[in-house]
Design a protein that fits this description.
The chain is α+β, with helices and mostly antiparallel strands. The chain contains seven helices and twelve strands. It has a five-stranded antiparallel beta sheet, with helices on one face. Strands 7-9-10-12-11 form a five-stranded mixed beta sheet, covered by helices on one side.
Length: 377
């Protein structure tokens, strides 16, 4: 913003100076042209009077807004209302007060007049008014430019600030998310007593959670950049789903959540790690945001994969943003806003359509519709 306004100010000053200079020169040309015309007319009247042997009517030489003076061959003033000394060798001159004058020598000594000087009385006032007008116009223009610049900067910087805030929240949330299982591990191993079954279960859940966080971050920041290295093959989705169901069951039991799995035999061409990330993120979210003692229904058919929970639900206003990286729809539970972004990324890669239905305090249903093509069996 400072660079923009600084360069704009320099540009405005240059344009204002050029504008003022142009207007100044235009006014100067018009004024001197008018004075030269007046001086020529006075010289013509002098020559005419001399040729007609008539006396010169000096009162007839006055022109409103201008002063004049007649000079002999010794540069002495013969008549007129210009009292200060003039350099008659210059055709155009400027006085100490800023007035402009012209000298005409076309009288050629008629009636003893060798030089006619005409001097304006309003040029400096016009220039002062022009300067004031220029300053006001360009100061107003710069003020408008500042307002527009600030408005545009706010518009352009807002999404950057938003992303920065999300990134800061991601760092804080990921630190908190890692702190929970690490603390549980430390509590379990620091005790001098032999490990109980409860401690072993806590260690098992904590290590699984850290492993899932690591796999998500690895997939998000490394795997996406090396998709050509993925092993895309015909995968038995039912087999992998049941494996992950057993793997994550400990998380559900910890909250006394019952998971119900209905799965038909389904094959689909997909990288195994991508499908695992897809399943685990949706299931962990369902467990994380479900109420204690509730149910989660998992359904797999040849047409779709559905995961339905009885959790806190998602506000309608948040639904359009839940797949954005680092976005979190709620601060009530853990997480750091990358899981659903990974889900969306995988679905886009394999042309899987995502449908989300949710009601506050009732729960959410995530349905993934497989594409109907030869890669789906």
């Amino acid at each position: 913003m400072t660079l923009f306004l600084g360069f704009s100010l320099i540009l405005i000053i240059i344009i204002a100076w050029l504008f003022f200079k142009m207007q100044y020169n235009l006014n100067l040309d018009l004024t001197t042209s008018k004075m030269q015309t007046i001086a020529s007319k006075i010289s013509s009247k002098i020559i005419y009077a001399h040729m007609q042997n008539l006396p010169l009517d000096k009162s007839n030489l006055n022109v409103k807004g201008f002063n004049f003076a007649l000079y002999d061959e010794h540069n002495r003033s013969m008549a007129g209302n210009i009292k200060h000394k003039i350099d008659l060798s210059k055709k155009i001159y400027k006085t100490k007060k800023g007035h402009i004058g012209v000298v005409d020598s076309s009288a050629l000594g008629h009636l003893g007049v060798y030089h006619v000087a005409v001097e304006e009385q309003t040029f400096q006032a016009k220039i002062d008014a022009l300067l004031k007008k220029t300053v006001i116009i360009f100061a107003t223009l710069y003020l408008l430019l500042m307002i527009v610049g600030y408005w545009l900067a706010t518009i352009f910087i807002k999404p950057i600030q938003h992303q920065r805030e999300k990134l800061n929240n991601f760092i804080k949330d990921s630190t908190h998310e890692l702190n929970t299982p690490i603390t549980a591990l430390l509590m379990s191993v620091e005790s001098s007593k032999p490990l109980s079954q409860k401690s072993l279960k806590r260690i098992q859940i904590s290590t699984k959670r850290i492993s899932e966080i690591y796999k998500d971050l690895t997939y998000l920041f490394l795997r996406e950049e090396n998709r050509e290295e993925q092993d895309i093959k015909e995968l038995n989705l039912t087999k992998v789903l049941k494996q992950q169901y057993d793997y994550l069951e400990e998380f559900a039991l910890k909250k006394k959540i019952t998971m119900h799995l209905k799965a038909k035999q389904v094959h689909f061409k997909i990288d195994e790690e991508s499908f695992i990330r897809l399943i685990n993120n949706l299931l962990l979210n369902a467990i994380k945001y479900s109420k204690i003692g509730s149910n989660i229904e998992i359904t797999l058919t040849k047409e779709y994969l559905s995961i339905k929970d009885e959790g806190i639900g998602i506000d309608k206003k948040e639904l359009k943003d839940i797949f954005n990286r680092f976005h979190r729809a709620t601060t009530m539970q853990g997480g750091f806003g990358v899981g659903l972004n990974i889900v969306k990324s995988i679905c886009q890669t394999y042309n899987i359509k995502i449908d989300v239905k949710s009601k506050i305090a009732k729960g959410s249903t995530f349905t993934l519709y497989f594409p109907k093509n030869k890669d789906h069996f």
